[in-house]
Design goal:
The complex is a heterodimer. By secondary structure, chain A is an alpha/beta fold. Chain A has 10 helices and 10 strands. The termini of chain A are far apart. In chain B, helix 1 runs parallel beside helix 5 and helix 3 crosses helix 8. Classes of the chains: A alpha/beta, B mainly alpha. At the A-B interface, helix 2 and helix 3 of A face helix 6 and helix 7 of B.
Chain lengths: 241, 294
């Protein structure tokens, strides 16, 4: 562990535009290996844009993103997944026409070792027994909570070292949200580094080692999850207290 | 008995429409582009087959080579003309497709002149089925078998292989597919390769069936294949096949009942089918109205 102190992910002075509209206005943050970091903020603050830029779906106009010390700037999205950085996109985005098992197989698309794929599949089924029961079912027939589990399992099929999660609690009941967050904590315990984007600030801050607050494209606050939970401004603006 | 003969003719014609429609529907499914140059790729396939055969190659070598060359032409067109417009408006891509269509037609007119060419004939060497007083050419049977066989092969590929499943994943959600590590550009190239190869198959069957090719031969079958794809439900493989056969049969039977001199009206009937589908079942015969789960 020679590079223990090197950040796993470094975002530096990032600016992202949609045409003439600037969605991200120069943000810098980092994620250390083994950490759970949350990025919280209201709708339209730029959270999803940020994750999509990290995954290579959008391009930064200014700034850089480094993953394990390597710039991701000109790396196409499929190569980024190969490098060990997976994302669970907002709204789950499972392939509704494909079976549960085929969805998981798509998650392992970058792997060439079939026995490794089989082992990973077994691991997901152990984590989410419901998915094993429904392995031959079309993913579109799953409930919202099951689809979220499938989306997480699917991302885990590429054996990532860094997992980005975009609003995993979206549209889920408090009970299911709790279940999903327990799963995320579980993944972190296995040594997977987590960058989580959430509107649900309360759960996101409780889970996070550290968190950043994003407001209309700018980072306005940073601290440990516990610190931010106690912060007056956060309590008022994001926790509705 | 005329009905029976026309039915066979319709199936033969429909098989060709169906093969072209498969390409339309595949490309639409992946990039949501109506590739109006797709019919002209059939023409390219026909000329390449004829050219390679005339240059002295035996048929069994000339035809596969022509199929591969047509396939590569389709991939090249996507690379050069459509890929740069991937994020542009759909209308830009559509107009570009029409431009490519005109480009191909005119390029082949300059290369080979607009005079129709005779396609090599193989029907003398093939048996003829006689049922009652009707003669059914073996070519008709072969054409239908080829079309159905290729569709089954394609369906097996799309459902049974890793790449085929990736193709369906890209078609449903390109961004999510990218997040899975699927190289979307490669899948799109593969789609154009398969679609164009099917168009070349259609061209060869067309050439053998109708014996004559010209630089504009792709235009009308292209549009009809598009209608076939819409009729069956665009984006759905068996739909393209069903639509193709139905359209071929409708066209042939209309020709049979029209008085001599008015057979051109069959085309109008085919377009009427498109209007009716768009009015009453825009998602096509096999299509479902899309339900979005929130």
């Amino acid at each position: 562990m020679t590079n223990e102190m090197q950040p796993m992910l470094e975002v530096e002075n990032l600016e992202v535009f949609y045409g003439a509209i600037q969605a991200i206005k120069g943000i810098s943050f980092h994620v250390m290996p083994g950490e759970i970091v949350s990025l919280i903020g209201a709708n339209g603050a730029g959270k999803t844009t940020c994750l999509q830029t990290i995954s290579g779906l959008l391009h930064a106009r200014v700034g850089d993103i480094r993953y394990e010390g390597q710039s991701l700037k000109r790396v196409p999205p499929h190569r980024i997944v190969e490098m060990g950085l997976a994302q669970v996109p907002e709204g789950r985005r499972v392939f509704t026409e494909l079976s549960v098992e085929d969805n998981l197989a798509m998650g392992a698309y970058t792997l060439s070792d079939r026995s490794r794929e089989a082992a990973l599949l077994e691991e997901q089924f152990r984590h989410f027994p419901r998915l094993r029961e429904r392995r031959d079912q079309r993913a579109g027939t799953l409930s919202g909570g099951e689809q979220q589990m499938l989306a997480i399992a699917r991302a885990m099929m590429s054996a990532p070292r860094l997992l980005l999660l975009d609003e995993p609690s979206m549209g889920l009941s408090p009970v299911l949200t709790r279940e999903i967050f327990l799963t995320i904590r579980e993944l972190a315990k296995q040594g997977i580094t987590i960058l989580l984007v959430e509107q649900n600030a309360a759960v996101a801050l409780r889970l996070a080692d550290r968190a950043y607050v994003l407001e209309s494209g700018r980072l306005v606050m940073a601290g440990s999850g516990r610190e931010l939970l106690r912060d007056e401004r956060i309590r008022e603006a994001y926790l509705g207290e | 008995m005329l009905f029976f003969v026309q039915l066979i003719n319709g199936l033969q014609l429909g098989a060709i429409y169906a093969l072209v429609a498969l390409g339309y529907t595949m490309v639409y499914g992946i990039v949501k582009l109506i590739n109006f140059a797709h019919g002209d790729l059939m023409m390219v396939g026909a000329y390449l087959s004829l050219f390679l055969y005339s240059s002295g190659l035996p048929l069994y070598f000339a035809l596969p080579l022509a199929i591969v060359a047509t396939s590569l032409t389709g991939v090249l067109i996507e690379r050069v003309a459509y890929r740069p417009l991937r994020n542009a408006s759909r209308l830009s891509a559509l107009i570009t497709a029409i431009g490519i269509s005109l480009l191909l037609q005119n390029a082949f007119m300059i290369l080979f002149s607009s005079t129709p060419r005779r396609f090599p004939s193989v029907s003398e060497q093939l048996p003829v089925f006689v049922i009652g007083t009707n003669r059914i050419s073996f070519m008709a049977v072969l054409t239908v078998l080829f079309a159905v066989g290729l569709m089954l092969l394609l369906t097996a590929f799309v459902h049974g292989t890793r790449m085929g499943k990736a193709m369906r994943a890209v078609s449903e959600d390109m961004r999510a597919a990218q997040l899975m590590g699927i190289n979307v550009n490669r899948i799109i190239s593969l789609t154009f390769a398969i679609g164009s190869a099917l168009a070349a198959f259609a061209a060869i069957l067309y050439g053998f069936s109708f014996q004559q090719i010209d630089p504009y031969m792709g235009a009308m079958p292209g549009i009809k294949a598009f209608i076939a794809a819409v009729l069956g439900g665009i984006g759905i493989l068996p739909g393209a096949m069903l639509g193709g056969f139905l359209l071929g049969i409708i066209e042939s039977l209309t020709k049979a009942v029209m008085p001599a001199g008015y057979t051109q009206l069959a085309d109008a009937v085919v377009f009427l089918v498109l209007i009716l589908v768009l009015l009453f079942k825009p998602s096509g015969l096999l299509g479902q109205t899309t339900r979005e789960k929130v």
